[in-house]
Write a structure and sequence with these properties.
With 307 residues, the chain is mostly helical. It is built from 13 helices and no strands. It starts with a helix and ends in a 6-residue tail after the last helix.
């Protein structure tokens, strides 16, 4: 009887060791995939890299990495190394793809992005109310919506064309970094009506062409964007985290107001009235974006985010 119990114990130990071994092997792979999705979220309009950090349970390690890099690497090396590598891969790969799509199929691509943003709004509104809503929350949403919409429509009305340059690419880097630092922010949406989004993603995507020579890489885009992102991290990482902690609802509702206003401005209305074929293509892309966002939201809601 004792021998049988010992055999069962040994078998259970063997199974447990096998599970642990598989877990150790799969964990960095899953972290790499999570990082790639976070990198995608940082650059794709309507999806926040910060929200995905929260979903995958790496927001706190990422924030500590940005605020106290050496301390965080020592504490979270096993988690951060595959995640950061994944972020870089996803960031560059999706930028390359987006640059191609925006150049070849501008209206359908923008309609897909608008659908993604529209489909994400319910989850963003739900997250904004996680810590309650006050009158100030809705005032923040309304004020941010009106101000941003007025500014963007005003720029369009007077036909102001922003010429991408060193200073504007620093601003782009600021926006992308902030979309990771502050969950829910997707400032890629704001870059589109300013005419900065397409040259930015094309520049980032050019990193993939380094295999063909360094002259193929658009350093005039990448260097200022990197400077903007680095300055944002140094100056705002701690401040934004504290602001979100103290005034979560007001800040998050303000973000939603900005997202809605910027989205309205980028809708390619002319593409819907330029023929039946174009209308169908753009409508299908818009609907596809909404469905994809809703499916992702449903999937995310089933994930238990670790503390």
């Amino acid at each position: 009887m004792n021998d049988e119990n010992n055999k069962n114990t040994d078998m259970n130990d063997s199974i447990e060791k096998s599970k642990n071994s598989k877990s150790k092997l799969l964990d960095p792979i899953m972290r790499l995939i999570h990082g790639a999705l976070i990198g995608l979220g940082a650059v794709l309009p309507g999806i926040s890299g910060g929200v995905l950090c929260v979903v995958f349970g790496v927001y706190r390690p990422i924030m500590e990495l940005l605020s106290h890099p050496f301390k965080a690497i020592k504490k979270y090396a096993r988690i951060l190394i595959p995640v950061v590598i994944g972020i870089a891969i996803g960031f560059v790969a999706i930028s390359k793809l987006l640059g191609f799509l925006l150049e070849k199929y501008p209206d359908p691509s923008v309609c897909l992005f608008v659908g993604l943003i529209a489909g994400m709004l319910p989850s963003l509104f739900r997250e904004a109310g996680e810590k309650g809503r006050t009158k100030g929350s809705f005032i923040s949403l309304g004020v941010c919506f009106v101000v941003v919409l007025a500014v963007l429509l005003g720029l369009n009305a007077v036909h102001v064309t922003i010429e991408p340059n060193f200073g504007w690419y620093i601003f782009c880097g600021f926006c992308i970094a902030l979309s990771v630092i502050a969950p829910g922010m997707s400032f890629s949406t704001l870059l589109m009506p300013l005419g900065l989004y397409e040259p930015l993603v094309s520049g980032i995507g050019s990193v993939a062409d380094v295999v063909n020579g360094f002259d193929k890489v658009q350093f005039d885009v990448i260097i200022p964007a990197a400077i903007g992102a680095l300055l944002t991290v140094i100056l705002l990482a701690k401040a934004v985290t504290k602001l979100m902690d103290k005034h979560y609802s007001v800040v998050f509702h303000g973000i939603i107001g900005i997202v809605i206003a910027a989205t309205i401005v980028i809708v390619p209305f002319s593409g819907f009235v330029s023929g039946v074929k174009n209308f169908i293509i753009n409508f299908v892309c818009l609907a596809a974006g909404i469905v994809i966002a809703l499916v992702l939201d449903k999937f995310n809601s089933k994930i238990n985010v670790p503390d």
